[in-house]
């Protein structure tokens, strides 16, 4: 990668830096320079002629720091944030799924990574647009990065249900190592157009992109899928071929939020999609599904399983119980620790259901 003159202004002069592909012997030097450059970025100039050039500079750090192989790029025990692509391809080959857990605060980040460490499991943490609105991409990225750097298992940070091209690009620039663009609320051609645009924009930094076809029902945060809409296998095949996405969320009867009754999953539809689509498939709305239902979906091709509502309930219930038992408590660390432990136990259980324990 080459830093082109004029892409951004740095506070101090710095010579142009070029990175030959595969130059692992200079990784430490390049990473150091990358941090310097990223810290120097000024607000994007609206008159830039080329989005690709913009991204080439803005994503310099992630292209060096992100480890696409899922292995240490520097000898030692610590692993930087990784992308989700190899995690999911390994899951596809191994017949298991990687758990993807929505995190809302520092304690939930700590809980998810602690669970992954204890079970030696690869893990994906993710944030929705409403979560991002609460604190900002940088805050959640910083939490995930700190946890990943202290971990010895592969950890990815994923934008869940990115609802616009602009948000996807903000996540990319913030350092997120996996991006979802959700165009499922649009018609087929519009979904293809925005999904391909995000794929093309993320390609220079090798950040994988998940998209959704069919609409997962239910309501959670600002997401309202209504009654949902099932994924058509033929459309799924065309969608993947035309967009180049690296994973695809499919709708087979799941829903976001809390289920009002027992969901009826169309697992035969999932099998039909698997026959014509060779990239990893993603299951949304898994909170509330039985272990058997999740495992059946994994057998039929699901490689990533999303859990969100369950984590919120576990954290909140633990905090409420702690305060009910000790109403005089005023130290947030006390009840925060209770919430963290509750989330950790839940995540460990779900990782075992997904079969990713022992895979890191």
What does this structure look like?
It is a single chain. This protein folds into two domains: 1-65, no CATH class; 84-354, Alpha-Beta Barrel (TIM Barrel), CATH 3.20.20. The protein contains 14 helices and eleven strands. The protein has helices spanning 27-40, 51-58, 60-65, 84-94, 106-119, 129-135, 137-149, 165-174, 188-202, 233-243, 267-276, 291-299, 309-325, 332-354, and strands at 98-102, 123-127, 155-162, 178-181, 209-213, 217-220, 223-224, 247-250, 255-256, 281-283, 302-307. The strands form two sheets. The protein has an eight-stranded parallel β-barrel, surrounded by ten helices. Strands 7-6-9 form a three-stranded mixed β-sheet, with no helix packed on it. β6 (217-220) and β7 form a beta hairpin. The chain is globular, with a radius of gyration of 20 Å.
Lay out the secondary structure.
Layout: H1 27-40, H2 51-58, H3 60-65, H4 84-94, E1 98-102, H5 106-119, E2 123-127, H6 129-135, H7 137-149, E3 155-162, H8 165-174, E4 178-181, H9 188-202, E5 209-213, E6 217-220, E7 223-224, H10 233-243, E8 247-250, E9 255-256, H11 267-276, E10 281-283, H12 291-299, E11 302-307, H13 309-325, H14 332-354
Parallel strand pairs: 1-2, 1-11, 2-3, 3-4, 4-5, 5-8, 6-9, 8-10, 10-11
Antiparallel strand pairs: 6-7
Q: Would you count the extended β strands for me?
A: 11
Helical percentage? 40-55%
Q: Helical region count? A: 14
Name the helix and strand elements from N-terminus to C-terminus, one letter apiece: HHHHEHEHHEHEHEEEHEEHEHEHH
Name the CATH class of the largest domain.
Answer: Alpha Beta
């Amino acid at each position: 990668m080459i830093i082109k003159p004029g892409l951004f202004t740095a506070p101090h002069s710095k010579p142009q830096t070029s990175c030959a592909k595969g130059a692992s012997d200079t990784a430490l030097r390049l990473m150091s320079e990358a941090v310097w450059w990223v810290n120097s970025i000024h607000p994007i100039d609206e008159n830039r002629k080329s989005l690709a050039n913009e991204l080439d500079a803005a994503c310099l750090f992630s292209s060096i720091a992100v480890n696409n192989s899922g292995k240490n790029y520097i000898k030692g025990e610590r692993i930087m944030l990784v992308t989700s692509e190899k995690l999911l391809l390994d899951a596809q080959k191994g017949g298991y799924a990687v758990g993807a857990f929505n995190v809302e605060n520092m304690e939930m980040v700590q809980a998810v990574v602690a669970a992954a460490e204890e079970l030696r499991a690869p893990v994906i943490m993710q944030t929705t647009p409403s979560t991002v609105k609460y604190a900002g991409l940088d805050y959640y990225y910083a939490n995930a990065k700190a946890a990943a750097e202290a971990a010895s298992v592969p950890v990815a940070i994923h934008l869940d249900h990115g609802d616009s091209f602009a948000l996807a690009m903000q996540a990319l620039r913030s350092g997120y190592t996996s991006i979802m663009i959700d165009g499922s609320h649009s018609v087929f051609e519009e979904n293809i157009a925005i999904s391909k645009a995000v794929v093309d924009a993320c390609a220079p930094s090798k950040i994988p992109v998940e998209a959704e076809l069919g609409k997962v029902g239910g309501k959670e945060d600002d997401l309202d899928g209504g009654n949902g809409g099932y994924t058509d296998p033929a459309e799924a095949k065309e969608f993947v071929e035309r967009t180049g996405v690296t994973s695809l969320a499919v709708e087979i009867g799941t829903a976001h939020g809390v289920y009002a009754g027992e969901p009826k999953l169309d697992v035969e539809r999932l099998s039909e999609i698997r026959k014509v689509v060779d990239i990893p498939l993603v299951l949304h709305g898994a909170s509330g599904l039985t272990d058997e239902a999740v495992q059946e979906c994994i057998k039929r091709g699901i490689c990533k399983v999303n859990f969100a509502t369950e984590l919120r309930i576990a954290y909140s219930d633990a905090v409420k119980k702690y305060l009910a038992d000790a109403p005089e408590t005023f130290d947030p660390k006390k009840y925060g620790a209770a919430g963290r432990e509750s989330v950790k136990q839940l995540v460990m259980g779900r990782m075992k259901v997904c079969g990713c324990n022992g895979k890191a």
